[in-house]
Every structure is written in C-alpha cells, then in structure tokens.
Design brief:
EC number: 2.1.1.80
Number of helices: 27
Radius of gyration: 50 Å
Organism: Hymenobacter amundsenii
Distance between the termini: 132 Å
Number of domains: 6
GO molecular function: phosphorelay response regulator activity; protein-glutamate methylesterase activity; protein-glutamate O-methyltransferase activity
Pfam family, one: PAS
Catalytic activity: L-glutamyl-[protein] + S-adenosyl-L-methionine = [protein]-L-glutamate 5-O-methyl ester + S-adenosyl-L-homocysteine
Structural class: alpha/beta
C-alpha cells in the first residue's frame, strides 16, 4: 500500500480545506525590500519555492535488540544524497554513554550526530536518540524529555512516531526493524492515519521478530522487505510521480472521468454493502491514491477496471477506507473533563436505573473500554448504596474490528496510555505478556456491527461518544447526523465529540459544557428546536412550509388548535364570518380550519398534505384557484356567486368568498376562504338541469368563452410574472457574481490576515511565556522578601508620600495595633505604644531632605526600640515614600543600665577604700581615684578622672618605668606585680603594686594600681 509521494508545494487535510505549505513556515527575506519591484504573485511564488525546500521527508527508524545489524545493512545500501532526514530511535541502556552515533557513522557518509534539545532537522543527516531520553519533533525541531515511565514500561519509538506523524503528516516515513516487544505499533498507525508511509523489516530476516510481527499484525504496513531491499523501495517511493490531486485535474476528463469515483463507490457497495459516497472527498481520494500507487496505476479508469477484475482489491480498499487509529484514553484531559460532567448526571439518576451509552465508530474498542472504565470509576465515587447498571453500545461497520474488540486482548504497549492503577483493576496479564480487559468491563460493553448512516440509532442515551468520526464525513452527512444524535440522547444527555469536530449549524440543539474538548449537553429549552430528523426509517412526517409572504411568528404549517394563533383566527372569524372557512397562504397551504369543511374539501390521494388546491372538490378547482389568485394579487375581497359543487346529497349552490387579511399584524398576508351555502332549486340539487342535452349551444359557447378568457388572463399574468422574475434573477445573478468576486478578494485578504494572525499569535505566546516567567520570578522574590522580613523580626512599615500605609510586617503589631485591613490608611490615624510625639514631623523631614533619622525610643511597656526612618527609593532612584524600621534593643539598654550601675558601685568602693588606689584603662588613663591616694599625694580626685598616668606627679616620679610595667600586664600572662619602688615626691620613694581586673574569670581592659609612700 504505497501512499502518494509527499507533496512539495501543496497538500490538503482531512477537513476538506486546501492550504499552501508556505503557511507553515515564516518567510525569510534577505537584502533590501522588493515590494516595489515584484508583484504579489511573484512574492508568493518565491515564498512557496523557499518553503518547499523545508518540506523534505523525515524517516524514523525504530528498533531494539538486533536492530544494529539491520541499520548497518540499511545505511550501507542508501546513498548519501537521498534528500531525506533520518532519525534513529532505539532502546538504549540509560546509564551508559551513547556510542551509537559513532557506530552508525561507520556505515554511512551522511553526518551522524546525537540529537540535542532544539536541534533543527536537516536533509541528508542522521540523528540518534540519546540514552535515557524521550524524543519528539515539532516544526522540524527535535525536543528531548525526561522519561516519565518506568524503565520497563517506556515506549520511545511510539513516542517519537506519534509526534512525527502529527508534525510531518504525509512526509512522515517510519521503518520498524528487529526488536523485542511491540514498541512502534501505535506510532505507525498514527503515521498511516496522517497518510505517511510504513515499512517493516521482514520477520524472517530479523534477529528478533517480535516488533516486526506486531507491526504487520496491524495491517497498516505498506512494505515488508529485508533490510537490504528497504533503501531501494524507499527511494522508489520518494521518486514515484505524483498522482495529481482531483481538484487540479477536474477539467481533464480524459484522465479521470466524472463518474469514476461513483463507479468505485458502487463496486465497494456491491461487495461490502457500505456506501462511501458521503465521505469527504479529500479523505477518499487519498486512500484510493495509496492503493493506486501500490499497484503503480496512474489513471482512475484503469483502477476501476482493476477493481472489477480483482474482488480482493475491493476488500483491501474497503479496509483502507476504514483505517482508524485509536488508543486508550486518547486525549487524557478530555476524559478528565468528561468525568467531571458525568458525576452530576449519574448522581441525578434514580437507583436501579440504567446508564445508556453509545460509541459509534468504535474501531478496535479502545475508546469504548476507556468510557466503561471512566463510568465504573464515577460509580465508585458516588453513593455506594445506589445501584446503577451500565449499558455501553459500541458499534462499527468493520466486522473484523468488532471481533477484535470483543476479545479485549491488547499488546503490552498499552502501558504507555493506561495508568498502573487502571492496569491492575481493569486488565489481566496474559502468559504471552499481553493484557486482556477484565470481565467487569467486558460485561458492560456490547459490541455490534452497525452502520451509522443507514441503521436506526440507539436511543434514550445518557452519553453519546462520537470522536474523530465526523471529520471523515461530508458536511451534508454531518448535518443529517447531528439531529439524530439530539434525538437519541435523553434530556440533559451528553454528546462527546473529537477535538476537530464541531456543531456547526446546530448550536441550538446542544449547550456547550467544555468548548476545548467538545463536550455538550442536549438542549430542550430552545423554542427553535423544530428540525426534522431524517432518519433512515419512517419516523418523520411531512411539514409544508409557510409562504414567504406570510408574516407568521412560526414556520410550521401544521394546524394549531390552541394558543394565541387560534384565538386571533377565531376572533377574526367571529367578527366577519361564521360559515365554514379556512385560512391559507398565497400557495394555498392551509394554516387553520374553522367549522365543518368536509362538504367542500377532502384529503388528496397519496402522501398527506394540507393544500387547499389539492383538497378542493373537482367542481371548485376553477373558481377557487381563480378567486385565490385574484385576491392575492389585488389584495381585495373576491366573491363568486352560484358556484355549484357536488355533495353526497346532490348538487349545492354556494357563495365562495376569498378575503385578503391585512390586520391584525400577525395575520397580515394570509387569505380567508369561506364557503356559504345558498338556496338551491330542486332541479339543480337533483342535477336534472345540469345535463348537456338541456344546455343550448349559446350557453355552452358562453361558458367556454368565459373559461378561455380566464385562461388567457391567467396566462398573460403568468408571462408577466415570469418576465419580472427573469429580470430579478438576472439582477440577482449579477449581484451574486459581484459578491463572489468580493468574497474571493476577501478570502485572499483573510488568508493574508490569517498568516499575520498566526505570526502575531506566536509572538503573543512567546510574550505570554516571558510574562509568566517574570511573574514566577516576582512571586519568588516576593516570597523571599516576606520570609526575609519575617525572619529578621524587625518591625517594618512602608509609607507612600502621603504617609499612607502600603505594607507592614507582622512584628508591627507590638508597636501599633495594625491589621491587614489597615493598608491604605494614614499612619497618623493609629495610636502607638511609643513615647514619641514627633513621628509625623520626622517622616516629613526625611521626605523633604532625603536624609535618614535614627533614634532610640521607649514604649509604655518599658521596651526600647532603635527606630530608623529612611527614604523609599525605587530601582530608577525615584522617592516613593518612606520606610520605618523598629529594632528592639531592650536587652542592650538594660545591660547598659546594669553596667552603669556596676561601674558606679565599683567606683564608690574604690573611693571609700582607705588604701591609695586608682583604676586605669587600657590606654593608662585614670578612671577612678580613691580619696586616700588624693589626700596622700595632695591631688584633686575629680580632676584626675580621664587624665593620663603622668598627671599623678612630676617627671622624676619614674612614670616611664611604671607605664612599661603596667602595659606588660596587658601583653603577658602575668596578671600582677608587687614591690616596684619608684622615685616619689620630695625624694621619698613610692612603692607600687598592680593587678589586672578580671570579670567572671575573663580579663578586662582595666588595671587596679596601688601607690604607697615608702618609709
């Protein structure tokens, strides 16, 4: 199954919307602007050529045990200028350095390098996944992630292949080589779903055939070849000419007849019973092109002939059209959102009731089982005494997929999508390593073959899950299915669609619950829900439409027996007529019936309708049609006298009246038709005078002339109306052509705006990320600042220039009774515990002079604080208020008081001693002198305080020797000396002794000196 060659200039997606690949990459312009030199078309052509160079195929090679030999053979047979990029993903030992790039470099001339985060993929290069990393690709850039799964549960090949399929789409190519396990199986399905190409090494040539056989079992493989043949087939695929897109060759009837596609649909329907004519044309063409390229067929008529001659190819094409990729809990966030919406619905269900769920297009059952697991988990979280039964109907048109889903056996790679808790509860491990759905889950899921487009839907549903199915169907079929979904759901039932699907045109039927994940609730409150559901079985009735001229508030033409409409009709009839009457529009559609009209009107044969011209008796056709037409045209009352109609009792003469209604406003534009019986002679009633033999020739001629004249008048009126309509149609056609040109121009502008918006959106996203980063930094800085201020236990308050409190720390509550609600109030409004009355003046001084103030103040509780007032400076050196800090210094103040008291106490002791003593500090300045020493040496004790030692007496005292010995007490370990004799006053020697003062066993910076006059 070879898909078409990856496009180099244009592609189209599943949504039936053509787009240019130039939109996917920004334009790179070098040199001066050239807007004035080239046209818009030339610029776009240059852009496409430039961007086309970026759209090269990307080949992902996956392997495990034994794959290195396959890679050796593959790269040796591959030229170095293939134009493709190669990404090798293997199961590597996480704690060993990566040697694979060096090994592969020996096999190829292309540069081989280990993938790095943010590395741009280029053609003719080989990139190797590093150990202990998961790798994906986005916009051609490799991204590395720290693995989140346990070592034995990791699936790096699936992880990369899935991102490759979404990023490269039809340019993606995956190759599965030798390996154990089933890694890569889910990823190759994604590649196939996005119209890439899948190749597998033949199991017979692989050292370990587990991975190749698992890939082949999916039936989504294009080629199964030995490793040495893979490069040649890959190059052949790369250089196979494109089958031109259908839109591009719509005019070439020779290469693709107009009915070729319908013939293919007919052949498929004849053999399988399924009609694909309502599938999206793009999707169908791609699938057919893949099959045509697989057989090297380039013309549609040839392929039609090939299908006629090969029934097996019809089956293969049928399977190709049904290719569906699904997995457990696809879009996990969507299932989390669904669970939130399901819980209220389940709680509202009465006990012992049934929860009915339908999952059309279930494929191989993963999504249906996922829904069952979510429902069971929801039941566990509600009242355990409330029993609810689950019925989950999972349907698909592929019998093989239904059989696979019923078995409930899935490979080991589902561990990447199913959490360990769910694996343990809802799955059982099989001897071969696969997983089987538990009986608890399989019992609630009912699988069946069902065609959504022609079989009757399941009804009375609480949940309808149709994900990623509508995107493959045409818009017409989607419009037919959405009313069916509305009909199938219970009131307040949930509709769960895929992320690429929407409710276009039917928003009045459903109320969105989650716009991102397309979860909606059935809406029964809207008065506009009057749609006719076109079921494949007879459930609908015919509803004639109201004429354009009718100004009724409703569009349904079915008769109404009650309500304001009926009251208005009855009031009008009572005011004007009482005989049998009907209200019709200009087309004759009956909107209301008054009285017994059975004598004049009868149901028409065939499909039931309510048109007065079809229901009128034969004798009334001429007169009734003429009167209605004339009244509608002239807007005047028309009366026909002596109209003869045949009844069950014979002929009856009646007065037929048609009145054009202009009021009330709700009935304006309608026609009131009344039937009044008139006295009928017996001969007329019995019909004796009505025979042709009693009519004179003149009477017959007069009747025929009258009818002919009426027909001429009607014909002339019809011609005039047709000419007028033709002129209007011409005018309308010209307006439509002009509007079409404007729309084309608008479309081009919209495409240009779309590109600009995409670029702007990327810039906004980048800017948003920067803002988020800045916000996180600011939040972290704020947290750090708060913890810093709290840790310092310094009471701080921030004021603005008007002394309004902007912020404060909790410690401020000890000084001022501030609460969080006080932010924004002036600080002068609060009383404090401080003996401080000049706070406002000091703050003003700081703001005016931009200088700080520091002082120590006392509280009423005998606490002391060191207060500092500083200007509040912003980062740009702008003064924006003041900062007040209060640091508690109570202990320091109390210590100082105790020291002063101790000092005074020591000084009083020294002063009262009878010994001649004095105290010196470290600089040998006199601190305290005893009165005895002052008297003995005739000195003034008060004047000696703070004086140097030399102030004791004249120089002959030997002050230098004494000072030297005293300094020695501070520098040596000897704490004292005695018996030092010095020259004294009047030739009398002085005997000195000294001792260093200690406090609590530690030396202080003071010395006690004693001086005595020697005998």
């Amino acid at each position: 199954m070879t898909p078409p060659h990856p496009p180099t200039s244009a592609a189209y997606d599943d949504d039936d919307q053509e787009y240019d690949v130039a939109q996917e990459a920004p334009i790179r312009v070098e040199g001066p602007p050239v807007e004035d030199q080239v046209s818009t078309t030339q610029r776009r052509t240059a852009q496409r050529q430039e961007d086309a160079a970026e759209k090269f195929p990307i080949v992902g090679l996956g392997g495990s045990a034994g794959a290195l030999g396959a890679f050796d053979i593959f790269f040796r047979h591959l030229p170095a200028n293939s134009g493709m990029a190669f990404v090798v993903v293997m199961h590597l030992v996480p704690d060993q350095p990566g040697e694979l790039p060096a090994v592969l470099q020996r096999f190829t001339a292309m540069p081989v390098q280990e993938a790095a985060d943010g590395l741009k993929v280029r053609p003719n290069h080989v990139y190797v996944i590093p150990p202990d990393r998961d790798m994906s690709i986005l916009h051609g850039t490799l991204l590395l992630f720290q693995p989140t799964q346990a070592r034995g549960r990791r699936l790096p090949i699936d992880f990369f292949f899935q991102s490759l399929a979404k990023d490269a789409r039809e340019r993606a190519i995956c190759i599965i080589c030798s390996g154990m396990g089933s890694d890569g199986t889910i990823g190759l399905k994604m590649v196939m779903e996005n119209f890439g190409m899948v190749m597998v090494q033949s199991p017979e040539t692989a050292e370990y055939d587990s991975m190749p056989r698992s890939a082949i079992a999916t039936e989504f493989v294009d080629y199964v070849l030995p490793a040495e043949q893979l490069p040649a087939k890959l190059l052949e695929y790369l250089h196979t000419p494109l089958i031109e897109r259908p839109r591009r060759e719509a005019a070439e009837s020779g290469s693709r007849p107009a009915h070729a596609l319908q013939k293919i649909f007919l052949l498929i329907r004849a053999q399988t019973g399924h009609d694909f004519s309502f599938y999206k044309r793009n999707t169908v063409f791609r699938r057919i092109e893949r099959r045509m390229n697989a057989h090297q067929i380039h013309e549609f008529p040839q392929y039609v002939r090939y299908l006629q001659e090969n029934p097996d190819e019809v089956e293969a094409l049928f399977r190709e059209l049904l290719i569906g990729v699904t997995k457990f809990f696809r879009d996990p966030e969507a299932f989390l959102s669904l669970r939130v919406r399901l819980l209220p619905l389940l709680r509202s269900k009465p006990a012992d009731s049934v929860i009915r769920v339908w999952a059309p297009g279930c494929s191989t059952g993963e999504e249906a089982y996922s829904l069952a697991m979510v429902l069971l988990e929801c039941l566990d979280s509600i009242d355990p005494t409330k029993y609810l039964k689950i019925q989950l109907f999972a349907t698909d048109i592929n019998p093989a997929a239904i059989d696979f889903a019923r078995a409930g056996l899935y490979p080991t790679n589902i561990t990447a999508d199913v959490s360990p808790e769910r694996l343990e509860r809802f799955f059982g491990r099989q001897p071969d390593g696969s997983y089987q759905i538990s009986k608890e889950v399989r019992d609630v899921v009912i699988f069946a073959v069902h065609n959504l487009t022609k079989d009757a839907p399941f009804t009375k549903l609480d949940l309808l899950c149709c994900r990623n199915l509508l995107i493959y169907l045409s818009a017409e079929l989607q419009k037919s299915l959405l009313p069916v979904f509305h009909y199938a759901l219970n009131p307040n039932g949930l509709l769960f669609l895929g992320p690429s699907e929407n409710l276009t045109g039917y928003h009045d039927l459903f109320t969105p619950q989650d716009i991102k994940w397309k979860i909606s609730r059935r809406n029964d409150a809207s008065p506009s829900i009057t749609r006719v559901v076109n079921f494949p079985f007879a459930l609908s009735r015919h509803h004639p439409a109201t004429a354009p001229g009718a100004q009724l508030p409703m569009t349904s033409s079915s008769p109404r027996k009650t309500g304001p409409f009926a009251a208005l009709i009855q009031k009008t009839l009572l005011r004007i007529y009482t005989p049998p009457a009907v209200v019709v529009n200009a087309k004759g559609e009956i909107l209301y019936v008054n009285g017994r009209t059975g004598r004049y009107l009868e149901p028409a044969p065939g499909v039931g309708g309510l048109n007065i011209f079809d229901m009128a008796r034969e004798e009334l056709n001429y007169e009734l049609s003429a009167a209605v037409h004339k009244a509608s045209t002239t807007r005047q009352q028309v009366v026909a006298e002596g109209v003869k109609v045949k009844t069950d009792a014979g002929y009856q003469l009646l007065r037929l009246s048609v009145k054009y209604l202009e009021e009330p406003e709700q009935l304006a534009g309608l026609l009131l038709v009344t039937f009044e019986d008139q006295p009928t002679p017996r001969k007329v009633r019995t019909g004796k005078t009505a025979t042709s033999t009693d009519l004179s020739r003149d009477a017959v001629v007069a009747a025929l002339e009258k009818e002919l004249q009426f027909n001429k008048l009607r014909l002339q009126t019809t011609i005039e109306e047709m000419e007028s309509s033709l002129e209007e149609l011409k005018s309308t056609n010209e307006e439509l052509q002009s509007a079409n040109e404007e729309l084309q121009s608008t479309n081009e502008e919209a495409m240009t705006n779309k590109e600009e918006m995409q670029s702007l959106n990327e810039e906004l996203m980048t800017l948003n990320m920067q803002y988020l980063s800045k916000t996180e930094e600011l939040s972290q800085a704020a947290n750090d600042m708060k913890n810093l201020l709290d840790a310092t236990e310094i009471a701080t308050v921030f004021l603005d220039n008007d002394m309004i409190i902007k912020r404060f720390t909790p410690s401020m509550s000890h000084i001022m009774h501030l609460q969080p609600a006080d932010v924004g109030r002036p600080i002068t409004h609060f009383a404090s515990n401080l003996h401080y009355d000049t706070l406002e003046q000091d703050v003003r001084q700081v703001l005016d002079r931009l200088t700080s103030i520091e002082t120590t103040i006392q509280t009423t509780a005998n606490e002391w604080f060191s207060m500092r007032i500083l200007p509040y400076r912003t980062l740009d050196n702008y003064i924006n208020g003041a900062v007040l800090t209060f640091t508690e210094v109570s202990d320091l103040k109390h210590l100082e008081a105790r020291l002063r008291e101790s000092t005074r106490f020591a000084e009083s002791i020294i002063e009262t001693m009878h010994e001649p003593l004095l105290v010196l500090d470290g600089e040998l300045r006199i601190q305290t002198v005893s009165q005895t020493l002052a008297d003995q040496f005739q000195l003034d004790a008060q004047q000696l305080r703070g004086q140097p030692l030399a102030a004791l007496g004249p120089g002959e005292w030997g002050h230098a020797l004494l000072a030297e010995r005293l300094r020695g007490l501070f520098d040596s370990s000897e704490p004292s000396f005695e018996g030092l004799r010095l020259p004294g006053p009047q030739g009398r020697p002085v005997e000195a002794f000294a001792r260093r003062i200690f406090s609590h066993g530690s030396p202080t910076n003071h010395v006690l000196l004693g001086l005595t006059l020697a005998e």
